[in-house]
Fold this protein.
Amino acid sequence: MVTPTTAHELGTMTVALIGNPNVGKSTLFNALAGVRQRVGNYPGVTVDKKIGRMTVGGRNCSLVDLPGTYSLAPRSPDEMVAVDVLLGRRGDVPPLDAVICIIDASNLERNLYLVSQVFELGLPTVVAVNMVDVARQRGLKIDLATLEKRLGVPVVAMQANRRHGVVQLVEALSQIIASPPRTVISPLPEAFTKEVKRLEATLANGHGKGAIPAVPRYLVERLLVDSGEYIETALFKKMPDEKVRQKLRHDVEAARVRLRDDGHPVPAVEPISRYRWIAGVLDGVVQRPRQAPVTISDRIDRVLIHRFWGLAIFVVLMIVVFQSVFAWATYPMGWIDAATALLGGAIEASMPQGPLRSLLVDGMIAGVGGVLVFLPQIFVLFFFLAVLEDCGYMARAAYLMDRLFVPVGLSGKSFVPLLSSFACAIPGIMAARIIEDRRDRLTTILIAPLMSCSARLPVYTVLIAAFIPKEYLFGSWFSLQGLTMAAMYAVGMITAIAVALVLKRTLLRGPTPPLVMELPAYKWPSPSNVLHRMFERGWAFVRRAGTLIVAVSILVWALLYYPHNVEQVEAPLRLERLKIETRLATLGEDDPLQQELQRQLRTLNNRVEAAYVRQSILGNLGQWVEPAVAPLGWDWRIGCAAIASFPAREVVIATLGIIYELGGDVDVDDSQSRTRLMSALRNATWQDSDRPVYNIPVALSLMVFFALCAQCAATLVVMRRETQSWRWPVFTFVYMTTLAYLGALITYQVGIRLIS
Amino acid sequence: MIKLSQLTVGQCGRVDRINDHGPLGTRLMEMGLIPGVELKLVGSAPFGDPLEFDLRGYRLSLRKSEADYVDVAML
């Protein structure tokens, strides 16, 4: 039989790392675990499960990084994760052998609040006092020895970004790790502890009878003191008997009334008692300078939060970030596209024609390329997001923008994710994690795709260039074309605001979450943190979303390929093809007729391609759907292209190219290629008639459709991952497609009446 | 006794009472707004809201609507 001590000696230990946000927890985690870390998922919540490996006292140790928090009073399933891990109530994390509390040396009072709560759990604890250099700069002198004595646990001074103190921390950890559980002395008043014991007894009684699951003491305390109803609801889920619940509720309420009458109202009793304890612990421990020196951080902040300059710098910064995404990401995206084309071309050349070749080239390789092409944008955006977050500016951005978002029902924290979505909704949705409130986060995620992303740009560009006249309003100030472009962006934004308002009043209704946000001191971003974050997000995207996106690409490929009736399509043109090919064979290398005949062959191939699409499942779907899209001014080709663009919006250009017999490689950035598409569009007529399909109202309706539609499988897949359910991506697809349809309908119907 | 949202920039106040007994009040207290603590209004965002305070050695931002729940004595 293995006794507990031997088990400890043999097995892997588990240690948790907890602390306030912005105290250098990630830096410490990286310093302790290095590259040996894995990011996973706690099912049902959006908190990342971050576990690293380290060695403590010669033994293996798992380090669990708990989300940064100011208090262990859980108000949501996300916050409950930390509590459950600490209490050993999660099946996917072993019970803890120790806890590391990392605190900010310049901010001991507020940081010790969390520590005081962690102490109540009775686990072996080490306190790491980080950023001692910053405290020194501020002129603070901290008596760590006394602090250690008063806290009763090892206290280690650290500067995690320079790896100072890490060795000492690990040493302290190895010393306390096998120690017996500490006696917990609660800072809360006697009366409170008595009530807790009473409730505990009642619950234990009920547990003995089998009606109630075991409830650890810490949760009983929380049940008594928390003002929201989260703990109650969470515990009640395991108590099916309504009578039992009623009794419990009654007991808790009665206890609270007694406490209030005793002068210890709930919930205030907890923070008041804890801060009183903190004052006692810190008495004489911290010496502040008489006149607080103005730190560099304060000086920077004065400018960055300044009413005018702060806002101006903020706008400039956002523009720079934005432009950089386009500038830096465009090249790698071009390389990936080129590599995909090269690989596709190589396979095409080396395989016989047939469904397998088409599947590989147009389905799989195009699909994989379609996933990888998002990586540069994700990397660049997350590079900036990580830098801004690490240096402390992110909180300022939320602070500056908050006033604009409150009327919509959101907070300033939604600003950066939504701004990112103007480049690409995928990193924008992933960035929404910084929003703690579940409803706000969900609303932000659901409206992010309405921000006109960079993929819509080719559609706007081609249609505007082809159909909006090059006229100017008010002299040469406003070009009609430019205004139309701006109008398309505006359509997206205004719709997003409307949708957010509606969501916050209906589905996602709830109390406005408070801002109450710390503005951390500025510091240099740590390169390892930034790089870690960047690569972890990119990798998470590829791993989680990648396979699904490729699957969708293959599905759409199949819909565009089959039935691929060779006889039906190629037979009528076989004679013509034979004629051209025989003539070509007879020509010499330099015969000027070569070029002309090659061109004819290409045109023939394009016609064949177009015919295949017309008879494909998707093509038939487009024709079948034509009566539904006719009120929008579309013919079956547009309908088909719109459906085919589901995997990615850019595909609509390529699909239109194929359908109009220009071949599939229409490149919007190449002016010759673009001009050909534009003239093809201008000359397109309705089937069996001379009536042109495209005019200004049709072009506008198509653009409005694209502004509002959800034609991006990748976005929906990422949405699923971030919201942990298919419900929301499906909802988004439905609501956006509906809005897109209605928007296009109104645009066209109003357009043809106004513009004639 | 005035509301925390009524302080002017540069003014200090001492917290007297938190008037919200729900999650907002708890949140404010957890962040250190306990009766007796002193804080200073350092500035406000461009549109006048939210407000930035200096307390217990760090900077806290609160919306005016949140600061309304805190009674302070002017110092």
